[in-house]
């Protein structure tokens, strides 16, 4: 049997997030600039290469695979990839195949995703106000996303909403969004805005809304019960007693979650980032392309995991954003 991936701090790597494209049909203000230059197609892993890469990680012990981007559902023929990954679900090696999406293409693909074995999907949605939605996504249209969410639920997919907490933007929608989600039996996760990439003139500090404050606001209306912390990720969860909803808080800037980190990320060009908050990465595309045998790739993966750092250096405590990383979230995959 192949030895599982264990990093130098004795953390077993069980969770892989893969960005399948850097492109997107939205231009969210905290994620991209309006005029993005995307990578040349030849730099991207082909669908066959993505399959080989993900299959290598599954062979090495990864049990959860999250597909992200950019917008994963705008990658041409991406359903071929999902269908192909379902063989690892069938074999039992992979416990979960899932994705993070902006929802714009869900109406088209919800049934196909379910048929490929996907059971849960994270949909990013920061506001329920049509005009505000258009402003924050620049190119997005709210009704299309809402139809996508309906289609996903009809198809049998469990939907979770991810909302970036933005000061003076969606603060006033905390209760309307929570109630809207509760009525649809949808859990929610709030994300603190992270300092990633050059996104034009947006003022990141001005956008920052502390989840400590968000949580305190929730507690004025609901009874919050802390849930055990077993995901190995940056989210902390509570249950709202009144609605039964699970609410997550992702606070990578203010909470040290690194000691239990079980995940690594692959970019659409085949680089592996073993820490979201660090620049350090290794190239897996060259080893992948260098040989038809998977032995070279497996060795490169093990070598990269051996370099996984202990933790990240984000720091908002001074007025400048320290520890900022220059790449876009759409490159590494959120
Ligand atoms: N396009 C898909 C989507 O929006 O769900 C998947 C990729 S997107 C980069 C993944 C997640 O990252 C989204 O929930 C998005 O809100 C979040 N995100 C993007 N930029 C961010 C930032 N600077 N800080 C915090 N979250 C961010
Ligand atoms: Fe696209 Fe997702 Fe980034 Fe928005 S957050 S621009 S939907 S990749």
UniProtKB/TrEMBL annotation:
Any GO MF annotation of the entry: cyclic pyranopterin monophosphate synthase activity
Cofactor remark from the record: Binds 2 [4Fe-4S] clusters. Binds 1 [4Fe-4S] cluster coordinated with 3 cysteines and an exchangeable S-adenosyl-L-methionine and 1 [4Fe-4S] cluster coordinated with 3 cysteines and the GTP-derived substrate.
Binding positions (GTP): 17, 66, 100, 160, 263-265
Substrates-to-products reaction catalysed: GTP + AH2 + S-adenosyl-L-methionine = (8S)-3',8-cyclo-7,8-dihydroguanosine 5'-triphosphate + 5'-deoxyadenosine + L-methionine + A + H(+)
Organism placement in taxonomy: Bacteria, Pseudomonadati, Pseudomonadota, Alphaproteobacteria, Rhodobacterales
Gene3D superfamilies with a match to the protein in the record: Aldolase class I (3.20.20.70)
Gene Ontology terms describing biological process: Mo-molybdopterin cofactor biosynthetic process
Entries under InterPro entries matching the protein: Aldolase_TIM, Elp3/MiaA/NifB-like_rSAM, MoaA, MoaA-like, MoaA_NifB_PqqE_Fe-S-bd_CS, MoaA_twitch, MoCo_biosynth_MoaA/MoaC, rSAM
Residues that bind S-adenosyl-L-methionine: 30, 70, 124, 194
Family label: Belongs to the radical SAM superfamily. MoaA family.
Official protein name in the record: GTP 3',8-cyclase
UniProt key word Iron: yes
Pathway given in the UniProt record: Cofactor biosynthesis; molybdopterin biosynthesis
Residues binding [4Fe-4S] cluster 2: 258, 261, 275
């Amino acid at each position: 049997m192949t030895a599982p991936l264990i990093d130098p701090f004795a953390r077993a790597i069980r969770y892989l997030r893969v960005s399948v494209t850097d492109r997107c049909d939205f231009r969210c203000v905290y994620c991209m600039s309006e005029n993005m230059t995307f990578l040349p197609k030849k730099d991207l892993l082909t669908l066959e290469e993505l399959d080989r890469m993900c299959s290598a990680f599954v062979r090495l012990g990864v049990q959860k695979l999250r597909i992200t981007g950019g917008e994963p559902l705008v990658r041409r023929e991406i359903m071929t990839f999902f269908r192909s990954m379902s063989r690892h679900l069938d074999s039992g090696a992979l416990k979960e195949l899932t994705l993070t999406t902006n929802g714009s293409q869900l109406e088209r693909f919800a049934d196909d995703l379910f048929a490929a074995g996907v059971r849960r999907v994270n949909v990013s949605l920061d506001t329920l106000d049509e005009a505000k939605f258009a402003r924050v996504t620049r190119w997005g249209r709210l009704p299309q996303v809402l139809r996508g969410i309906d289609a996903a639920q009809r198809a049998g997919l469990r939907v979770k909403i991810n909302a970036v907490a933005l000061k003076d933007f969606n603060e006033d929608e905390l209760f309307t969004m929570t109630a809207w989600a509760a009525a649809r039996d949808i859990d929610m996760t709030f994300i603190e805005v992270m300092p990633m990439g050059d996104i034009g003139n947006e003022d990141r500090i001005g956008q920052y809304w502390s989840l400590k404050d968000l949580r305190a606001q929730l507690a004025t209306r609901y009874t919050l019960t802390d849930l055990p912390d077993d995901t190995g990720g940056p989210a902390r969860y509570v249950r709202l007693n009144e609605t039964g909803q699970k609410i997550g808080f992702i606070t990578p800037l203010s909470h040290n979650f690194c000691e239990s980190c079980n995940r690594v990320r692959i970019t659409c060009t085949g680089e592996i980032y073993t820490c979201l908050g660090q620049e350090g990465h290794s190239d897996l595309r060259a080893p992948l392309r260098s040989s038809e045998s998977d032995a070279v790739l497996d060795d490169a993966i093990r070598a990269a995991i051996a370099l996984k750092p202990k933790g990240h250096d984000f720091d908002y405590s001074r007025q400048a954003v320290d520890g900022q990383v220059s790449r876009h979230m759409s490159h590494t995959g959120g």
